[in-house]
């Protein structure tokens, strides 16, 4: 079973992971936005040279933005997926024996003024589409 499917099973325990999530100028492999936890799966190209330097810079930027980053090698995921999932569970709940609970993301408001106009403009009337019978 793939890591993605196993992470989706964690959803039953109160988490929600998204795959290929854009954050800033980066696209992360997996993210639980409620806990600001990022899981990256790295291949051999990430182990030396430019790949290693890019990953360090990327991790620093994500941590400054308030995310925690867990990195695993492809071989770890393939050979010890249970150990990888246990490490993710510990990062989510603080311990491998901690009881899971519902993790809910709270949206941040930019302004405390509730009467402020919604930033998304109202839909404007569009011409009927010929392809939709209009």
Written overview of the protein:
This protein has a domain of 91 residues: 3-Layer(aba) Sandwich (Endonuclease, Chain A). The chain is 32% helix and 19% strand. It is built from four helices and four strands, in the order αβββαβαα. A four-stranded mixed beta sheet has the order 1-2-3-4, with helices on both faces. The longest helix is centred in the middle third of the chain and has 16 residues.
Write the layout of secondary structure elements.
Elements: H1 3-10, E1 18-23, E2 26-32, E3 37-42, H2 49-64, E4 68-73, H3 74-79, H4 81-93
Parallel strand pairs: 3-4
Antiparallel strand pairs: 1-2, 2-3
Give the structure's gist in a few sentences.
This protein has 134 residues and is of the alpha+beta class. Helices cover 32% and strands 19% of the residues.
């Amino acid at each position: 079973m793939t890591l993605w499917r196993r992470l989706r099973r964690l959803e039953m325990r109160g988490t929600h992971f998204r795959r290929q999530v854009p954050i800033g100028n980066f696209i992360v492999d997996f993210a639980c936005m409620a806990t600001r936890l990022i899981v990256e799966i790295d291949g051999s190209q990430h182990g030396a040279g430019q790949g290693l330097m890019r990953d360090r810079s990327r991790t620093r930027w994500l941590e400054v933005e308030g995310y925690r980053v867990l990195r695993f090698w492809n071989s770890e995921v393939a050979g010890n997926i249970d150990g990888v999932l246990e490490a993710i569970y510990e990062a989510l709940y603080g311990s491998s024996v901690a009881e899971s609970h519902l993790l809910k993301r709270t949206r941040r408001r930019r302004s405390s003024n509730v009467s402020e106009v919604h930033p998304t403009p109202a839909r404007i009337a569009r011409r009927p589409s010929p392809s939709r019978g209009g």
